[in-house]
Structure formats: structure tokens, C-alpha cells
Amino acid sequence: MTAARADVRDPAVPGGTANRLIVTICTIVATLMQSLDSTIANVALPYMQGAMSASQEQINWVLTSYIVAAAIMTAPTGFLAARFGRTRLFVTAVAGFTIASVLCGLAQSLTQIVVFRVLQGMFGAALVPLSQAVMYDIYPVAQRARAMSIWTMGVMIGPILGPILGGWLTENYSWRWVFYINVPLGVLTAIGLLTFLKESPPGGSVRLDWIGFGALSLAIGAFQTMLDRGETLDWFGSNEIIIEACLSGLGLYVFLVQFSLAQRPFLSPKLFADMNFVVGLVLYFTNGMIMYATLALLAPYLQTLMNYPVVTAGVVLAPRGAGLMLAALICGRLLGKISARTLVCIGFSTGAYALYEMTAWTPDISEWSVIRTGFIQGVSLGFITIPINIITFATLPASLRTEGTGIYSLVRNLGSAIGISVTGALLQINTQVNHAVLAGEATPFNRALHSGAASRIWDLGTAQGAGLLNMEVTRQARIIAYIDDFKLMLVLAIAALPLLLLTRPPETKPARPGGSH
């Protein structure tokens, strides 16, 4: 127990080095759990959809509910850590995340799993910022760069392992095991942190603008619910959607009033006076939309249209993570030699090329084509992620960085949730529209239906033939709808490029003799 209470920041203290190693492993595992849950559930979505009797749009709530909850609860992490203690909050977050994972695995209905995913996102929101803070705290300045690189590499394993592990667990056990896998990891991490991590000193008189935070949470939550349920309820033909739209608008209005008039608002107005920060937020939002929406679309595409087994789908999606890791390593070496703005431009351009290829996809494409395109898209994300961070905070005063990181993480998560919801809704709408257009050509007067195999399989004179033809028309309509979604993300990637012209590098003027400028 003496070793457990030793100062883990001082290698000279007996047991300090061992403690630090254990705490490092715990922080990496905690973050890995959070990053895994962003991708591991994707390949299991079609199985969840069948078990819950949900539509494609409804099953996406499993993803968006988690992301939105994490986005909202990321902001008050600093306040909660200062108020209750960092170690207590960290252990509580890990324990809550683990329990919520068990509940997700036990869920028997769509409503239950969405509610439990909200809980999982709320507890998981604190894992990344707290693990970063702990890593900075337990290592001396000279070792921080190396420590953070190890931590980052650990985090990047998540997108690689997620699809493969999720596919293997679903194929050999059940989709429920993509949540149960968190249990042993969570238990060991909580015990390790509770035993070996010292409690941080009190944060003093830290305050949170609860009105601003509550109003922003209401605006985001109501808006996301409106997006998720809009297609099912016929949008503004439903009273529920109208109420959710009004609540979202009311929350945004109260937030803006509080932002303008409060003495210490939830977000400092000085943040938005920095052009780099504002542009960085927009770029990060766009990146979140593209990255998570693509993942949400690809898993059902591979399994329902290309008939891939779930394990195969996981394997062909994994190279996306490998491309991300490789590009991040290359990007780390290029920073300082090439401007961050140029690297982000390369990233979005590479991503646009990958999306351009995807607009020509049909279910007949080869496995290698899917792997290659996914790898290219992973490379694009690797070139975007780190340089955007540098651009966003390049000119922001140090006093605003802590607050800036909270809103920075929030907009990425918000972009991800909105991207998944919008592309999911458009997929349903465009499938119906395309079906109506294609069905208009499927008439007894179409000569193509009276020759060869078509006349035998799709005989409109029989109920079976008409049913088979309708299934094929629906399939073709869905293929076109996927292409429409890929085109939308392609446009977003291209539209982001001109924004880079509004950014500027950090000021590095050398001081003149005498201190004058």
C-alpha cells in the first residue's frame, strides 16, 4: 500500500516507476475501450437490426446516441474532476462505462439499447481527457513527448481492432459480446487506477455555467433526436418533431443570450475571435461527419448488398485503421518541414479521391478494391487529425486552450452524430425515390423483361415473379442511394479545402535587442 501512495511523478520514490507503468497501461486501456466502442459496434449493426426489428435509420440511433451523449458530457469533465477529484472521477467513469456496456449487452429492445448507449456515452466522455491529463501529470517534462506518442499509438489500435474484433465476436458468439468485451478491461482498469493513482489536489473555486451548459445540451439533444426520428415520423408532419425543433431552438436561444450577457459564460467569447480556432472547428466538424458516416454506411453495405460474412466485413474495414496509423507516423515526421495547412489539404484531397472512387461502387467490386479504398481513406484521416489540431490552437492564447479543447471535442462528436443521422435519413429517402423511378420502368411493356433469364425469373404474370422483381428494384434503388450519400460526403470534403486559406501560422517573431518590436 506504501507503493500505491508513492508519488508516481517521481521515479526516485520506491515503487514509483512500477506505479507509473501500471497507471500508463490503465490509461491506455481506458482510452482503448472508448475508441473501440466507436467502431466495434459497426459491423454488428445488421445483427442488432434483426434482433431489435429496427429499420436502417433506427439502428443508427445505437451509434448517434452514444456519440451525442459523449459530446455533451465532455465539456464539464474539467469541472467535475476539480470538484470531486480526478481519480474518483476516472474510476467512476470506467466503472459506469463498464456497467453500461453490460446493460447494452442485456438489452431486449431498441429503446433499451439506445438508453444504455446514452449512459455509456455519458460515462465514456471523460475517459480520453482524463487519461491525457494523467499521462501529462505522471511523467516529467523530458519524457512527456515519448509517453504521449505511446498513448496515441495505443489509442490508434482501436480503429484497427474494432471491426475485426467486432466481426469475430459477432460471428462466433453474439453481437452482445461487442459490449461484454469491455467488462474484463473495465474491471482491471478500475482496480489499477484505484490502487496506484494518487488523488489530485482540489481544484479550488472552479465554476461551471450550468445555465449555458444546460441550454446547449438541450439544443444538441433535441436537434439530434429530431434528426434521428424525423424520417420515421414524416418530419414536420409530426407533432413530436415540431416540439423537438422548438426545444432545440429554445435551447440555442437561451445559450446565445447567456453567452452574450453572462459574466462567466459556458464558452468564452474570446474563443471565437480567433479565426484559426473557428476554421479549425468547422474542419473538425466536417472531418467527423465524413469519418463516422462512412463507417456507419459501409458495414451494412458490405453485409446486406455484397453478402459478406460479418468477419470478412470486419477484416476489409480494418485497413482503414492501418492507414490512419501509418499516415499519423508520417505526418509526425513531416510537421515542421511542411506546414500544417498543406498537410490538411493533402488529407482532405486524399479523402475526396477515396470518396470519388466510392461513388462508382457496385456490389460487384472486388474485396481488394474495398480494402484499398478504405486504406486510402484511413491515410486521409491520419493527415487531417494531427495538423487540424495544430491549426486550431496555433494562435489561441494559452489561457483559453483548456476551454478550447472541450468545444473542439464537442464539435467533432456533434459532426459525427449529425453525419450518421443525415446520411441514414437520406439513404431511406433516396431509396424510396429511386425505387419509384425504377419501378416506373418495370412494366409489361418493357421488352427487357420478356427476353432471356429475365422473362423466367421476373415473370410479371406471376406473384412470385413480381415479388422477385420488386426485391431487385429495391436493391438497385438502395445501391444508387448509397452512391448519393458518398457524393454528398465528397462535396463536403472538397468544400472544406477553401477554408484553409483563412488560417495563418503561429507568430514566431524573434525578439529584437532591447525587447522592442
Structure in words:
With 517 residues, this protein is an all-alpha fold. Helix 4 runs antiparallel to helix 19, helix 6 (86-106) runs antiparallel to helix 11 and helix 19 (401-439) packs antiparallel against helix 21. It is globular. The N and C termini lie far apart (56 Å). 73% of the residues lie in helices and 0% in strands. The longest helix has 39 residues, at 401-439.
Annotation field: number of helices: 21
Outline the low-pLDDT stretches. 1-15, 508-517
User: What's the overall geometry?
Assistant: globular
The helix-and-strand class reads: mainly alpha
Q: What is the makeup of the main sheet?
A: none
What is the gyration radius calculated from CA atoms? Answer: 25 Å
The H/E string reads HHHHHHHHHHHHHHHHHHHHH
* Count of beta strands: 0
Helical residue percent?
over 70%
Cα distance spanning the termini? 56 Å
Strand composition percent: under 5%
Mean model confidence by pLDDT: 81
SSE blueprint:
Blueprint lengths: L15 H21 L8 H8 L3 H4 L1 H14 L2 H8 L1 H21 L3 H15 L2 H12 L2 H32 L4 H4 L1 H15 L13 H21 L8 H23 L13 H31 L4 H8 L1 H16 L5 H19 L8 H27 L7 H39 L12 H6 L5 H34 L21
In short:
By secondary structure, the protein is mostly helical. Helix content is 73%, strand content 0%.
Keywords for this structure?
mainly alpha; single chain; 21 helices; disordered C terminus; globular; 517 residues
